[in-house]
Amino acid sequence: MYAIPAAPAYVASKHGVVGLSKVAVGYGPDNIRVSALCPALTKTAMFDGVVARAGTQMVAQQQMVAQQEAVTPPRRLAESEEVAAAAVWLCSPEATYVTTNWAT
């Protein structure tokens, strides 16, 4: 997980969710699962708007995307379907042994 200097409220909320999920894993013995899914930037309409506001030149937009891809472990932005699939899996019976937080 990394911080975005231009988005302090976003960074604070994401770090707060991760911290809360780390504390909540102590409820595992009570059969309470806690998982926080915090993906890095994801290709969505919101992200497209951020890129569009980054600059009027295509070079500036491409640089912004390249910077985000460089700090993401798979070296690419997530697709919204990938994030949704992970959330569905975490809620499924197949994930009953999983209590964790995933943050990039």
Percent helix: 40-55%
Rg to the nearest angstrom?
A: 16 Å
Annotation, overall tally of beta strands: 4
Q: What is the N-to-C succession of helices and strands?
A: HEEHHEHE
Please state roughly what percent of the residues sit in beta strands, choosing from under 5%, 5-15%, 15-25%, 25-35%, 35-45% or over 45%.
5-15%
- Average of the residue pLDDT scores: 82
**Which of globular, elongated, flat, extended, rod-shaped describes the shape?**
elongated
SSE-based structural type: mainly alpha
**How many angstroms separate the termini?**
4 Å
* Uncertain residue segments: none
Counted by DSSP, the helix tally is: 4
Largest sheet: 2 strands, parallel
Q: In which order are the strands of the major sheet placed? A: 1-4
Give a structural overview:
There is one protein chain. By secondary structure, this protein is mainly alpha-helical. Helices cover 48% and strands 12% of the residues. It contains four helices and four strands; from the N terminus they run αββααβαβ. The chain has a two-stranded parallel ribbon with strand order 1-4. A two-stranded parallel sheet has the order 2-3. The termini are close together. The model has no long low-confidence stretch (mean pLDDT 82).
Topology:
Elements: H1 8-24, E1 35-38, E2 42-43, H2 45-53, H3 58-70, E3 78-79, H4 80-90, E4 100-103
Features:
mainly alpha, 104 residues, elongated, two-stranded parallel sheet, 4 helices
